[in-house]
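Record type: monomer structure entry
Structure origin: computed from sequence
Chain ID: A
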Amino acid sequence: MKSTPPASFSTAESVLHQRAHARFVATLLSAVGFVVAVWLAVLANDAVSGSPRHQLLILLVSIVLLIIGILFYLGAAAAGQRDPGDLEPARSARIARRIRLRSRLGAVFAVSALLAVAAVGALRILTPPAERPVSVQFTEITGRVQLEYCPSLPSSFEALATPTDLASSSTLLPVWVASRVCGNPSFQHGVWLYLNRSSITVADAGDR
């Protein structure tokens, strides 16, 4: 006949297990928070990507939520550690409830943070990159082969280009120029020109 372990023993084992689980989740969330922080730093410092500010803000909020979640899990892992090992069943039960409550609160913040990160990832995948203003200047006269299409195209002008094209290493850079810049009445709504990268310099004109 098997003997049933005392309730105090079962509760103490449960407390130890819950503490270990809380420490593991806190460590895992710390690693996730580090990855998200690196991602945020890369997007914030990448002048080519042109990441919308709302995406950067969502990532920042997700880091804050992760930190709060980590703090709750750390609080759960530290609950009752200063108490002696042979606690009364009632005391052990209170500690176990405290650990579960803090772990649940930590899970709420952690899940919210992960959903925010997933939303940013979905936005960057599903939302096509918008054109951004750039300043284009020809460095070689041989590169101005577009004169037959745009007779009034100056040696330095402003245009629009997508972040993907700006970051690409292809030989040609597609840029959109307005009709007034092009000077060709046939292109009333503007025209896309494919410029040789070796004959132009491109600068960000978004802050002008």
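Annotation 1: The beta strands are 132-138, 156-161, 172-177, 191-196, 200-204.
Annotation 2: The chain has a mean pLDDT of 81.
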